[in-house]
Amino acid sequence: MNKFNWGMRVCVLFLLWVGAAVSLPAQTFKTLHSFDGTDGAGPAASLVQATNGNLYGTTESGGTGNCSGGCGTIFKISPSGRLTTLYKFCSRGGNRCTDGELPVAGLVQGTDGNFYGTTYYGGANSCNVNGYNGCGTVFKITPGGKLTTLHSFNNTDGAVPASLIQATNGALYGTAGGGANGAGTVFTITPGGVLTTLYNFCSQINCTDGDEPNTGLIQATDGNFYGTTFAGGANNTCVYAGCGTVFTITPGGVLTTLYSFCSQINCTDGDNPLAGLVQGTDGNLYGTTFEGGTNACPNGCGTVFTITPGGALTTLHSFDGTDGANTYAGLVQATNGNFYGTMSNGGPIGAGTIFTITPSGMLTTLQSFDLTDGANPNAGLVQDTNGTFYGTTGTGGANSVGTIFSLSVGLGPFVATQLASGQVGAAVKILGTNLTGATSVTFNGTPATFKVKSKSEITTTVPTGATTGTVQVVTPGGTLSSNVPSG
User: Fold this and answer.
1) The domain that contains 469 carries what CATH number?
2) Which of 189, 213, 227, 430 is 20 to 30 Å from 244 at the Cα level?
3) Quick check: 344 pLDDT over 80?
């Protein structure tokens, strides 16, 4: 049994709004910022909404440093488009980027208010991974821009780490390459920087347990973590060494392979997933694959799939190029119950698309990029509590090095909790818009004591008697909910 006995705990889940979209409302797309290189270039990760109401993110390159094209940046941007560069990597001088370089992954805001993230390369240890010096780092940065390096990977404990999540126990969890078998790891690290390797991939013959976990994890409602590997698995018919997997791992490090891609003829079920998963309000997991599916691209244009926690996979959509191709990004479930995502390529000129798909698989293309408004969106979307989606493109825009954009599809404001669940008595931060003057906070109908910290943040605790369900905040402008139970 793992150290989290979830069956013996009182754990309240804060669910998203569930519903069925009757029709697509009018939509508004805006380019909020075009990077110019000095303030960053090539953003490749999703944004995160912070408790102060701003959005925070990273750019893979740009800024300063000894790297070709710059070593990457951390930035914040207001919902209206005002950008501030908080940190430029490789800024400590010398010939080594001891503070890290190329922050390919995004950020997570911890319950302490600071942001945590990773860099692909750099750090205190020599590694020479893919021609770069350093195996990557884990860092902490304050909202004001003070960066602390928490850990430098040394390849034996991992290299080129992906994004982090904060679990309900307060620790951070993530994946990396390298490790004991050179096929990647799952690790946990405390906010203070103590790292523990939980699992080394390719611990089974022919890497049937997976290889190259290039994306981060999610913690599901059962308390376990779920993720994907780009390669490995039971099937070796793909261009790479294995077609990829979906796996689950307990907080104690026991890994189970749930699915090996290309289990169907010609990989019609997809292959080589490059994105993480999201748990839908129905309890199932949803994700994307980079290639595979029923259409040629030439190795398939990629798919959207759903998989049960027990491992039963259903392909919801196979892309055909005209509606997008080859995504690096995962999905986000919006307040209307549908999923939204981006395709890195495809569309009318091959510059990528934004799409929405219902849980049953009906897909609609919302935006086809045309270079002037951005191109190659390699990151997923985030739905701000104002109802609008925000995202980035890796190239295109006024200076051809990437953009930040917003997309409104007519969805209204809501509230969200910083963590998806919590025990009775646990501290909870509620994010929202125009929360000033709030008069009531309830957890599935149970009143809670609270404090309005700002117009975008309320602090509270899970009240005694609370059960899984809706978090509601009554404000002078109306009642905001984190979910509306379906009939």
Assistant:
1) 2.60.40.10
2) 189
3) yes
